[in-house]
Amino acid sequence: MEAPTLGGMRVRKGNGETVRLSRGSSLTDFAEKIGLDAASLVQMLFHLGEMVTATQSVGDETLELLGEELNYVVEVVSPEDEDRELLESFDLEFGADEGDEDDLVIRPPVVTVMGHVDHGKTKLLDALRGANVVAGEAGGITQHIGAYQVHTTVDGIDRRISFIDTPGHEAFTAMRARGSQSSDIAILVVAADDGVMPQTVEALNHAKAAGVPIVVAVNKIDKPEADPTKVRGQLTEYGLVPEEYGGEAMFVDVSAKAGLNLDKLLEAVVLTADASLDLRANPTQDAQGLVVEAHLDRGRGPVATILVQRGTLRVGDSIVAGPAYGRVRAMLDEHGDELTEADPGRPAMVLGLSAVPGAGQNFIVVEDDRMARQIAEKREARERAALQAKRRVRRTLEDFMASMEKGESQELNLILKGDVSGSVEALEDALAALEVGDEVALRVIDRGVGAITEANVNLAAASDAIIIGFNVRAQGKAAELADREGVEIKYYSVIYQAIEEIEAALKGMLKPEYEESTLGQAEIRAIFRSSKIGNIAGCMVIGGVLRRNAKVRVLRDGAVVADNLDLASLKREKDDASEVREGFECGLVLRNFQDIKEGDIVEAFEMKEIPRG
Ligand code: GDP
After folding, report:
1. What is the Å distance from ligand 1's center to 226 Cα?
2. Tens digit of pLDDT for each residue in 58-69?
3. E strands within 26-90?
4. What does CATH list as the number for 288-387?
């Protein structure tokens, strides 16, 4: 293979060796790894038709393409792998228990409550939490810290269960989007008066995809129209067969409102855990786990609710949580009581971190503050770089057209949030009524009343959805998170406007039709040869206008000799010009075409999209 040359410049090629680059690396990062100067990579990429700056973060494909060109095998390292390597470099490992079998002790299951909207998830979480408050305990008030633990007695033995206190599969998805699994068991809530609904199925699929056993809470059995048998029949059709029908899933009829059978539900969770899971952890090692929720508290600074997965977390431990680090200054449980230690399966609110970590990020106890800071700083730098790359790949409403052109996305996922349920329904109905043909699909994957939350953003990020806010705004850190995750949030206050834009985007998802429109012509009067930039054509614009980013063709004696070319540059005098009008001289360079002659006509045109009726 010959060395690629650029205007006479020779670029040293590799011998097929592997270069490891983090996702979101820049050309400067790449150049450093292979001992080239970044400018030559910029130029090379430019030659390949992409224009980026040396420090700009570029996508995986670009890095790989460039690698191929230079005869290197580029290996883009995922953030997860990289993090593992980072921890390894400090002799740490996340995710595995230390020691052997004898060191493992049974730990409580961690449970997520999922199900269709209004089927009683929140009510059930509240009821379970409330029913478990030991009489006389600190006024009996529990706080929402994102997770809580309850006790129940099964076969005369006291057992504990930890609940993730965010209803819905959003929290679940957020964790999974980060590659971590927080929950061991899912409680699927189905209202007995309503039966299986779309989000029931969605939740079921989420749990199945994660390989998490399901316990079904058939709720609202206090209602006269409740039909728990029907729910069993419906779920059987989805492959979730009740034990009493010979299947594996435990179904418990409950009423969150009346507090009926809550103990039976807890028992079912424990029995399911015992039957199908081996939930044990080493409580004696340094603690590790996940961040469930975190926020910035005005008085206390960053506050994170963590879930210990293995080891025991103690006040005074040095920890790293995502890009945050610090020493555990204090730990509180869901009753606001101070904890001195938290064992596996225990959620706890931790004070003392340097920053607010994200939900789903892991935490790990390390030797000392210095190590914690070093790891956190490396992670932070990496997150920043990865963010830039991510920003470029995530979708915006406008991007849909482009991705459709490439034959990619034919599904527009939306999350609708509105001020009142009426407006959300109206919006959803109107969207459902849109006629856009069979080629593209619009899917409302979640809807709800109230501000746009972090959970909404996480779900959007996990399912590549766009969030529509109708008369509501993003709450708290949701906007920041959306920005970080590259999730687009569109705000509207007029329904038809929202509909119009979405309709336009959907139509854009249909393959756009284009027609050509001629912009202008220039005659080549002189040619200057440059070894560096190629042949420069000195032209006179003889009609219309030449635009820098227009497409051009070359005509010779009325015949087309080259078509659909790009301009590599367009200059007036010495300056770059975005356009040059009739009667003016200009200098231009054609990309990938050097065979020009005096007297040739350069015709500029653009492809205009024909609006769909
Ligand atoms: P979520 O959207 O799934 O979190 O549902 P909520 O917990 O907000 O409950 C929706 C509505 O159903 C509320 O008005 C609750 O009071 C009501 N609800 C929840 N559980 C029960 C129940 O067991 N019986 C009755 N009758 N109503 C319930």
Report:
1. 13
2. 888 889 988 998
3. 73-77
4. 2.40.30.10
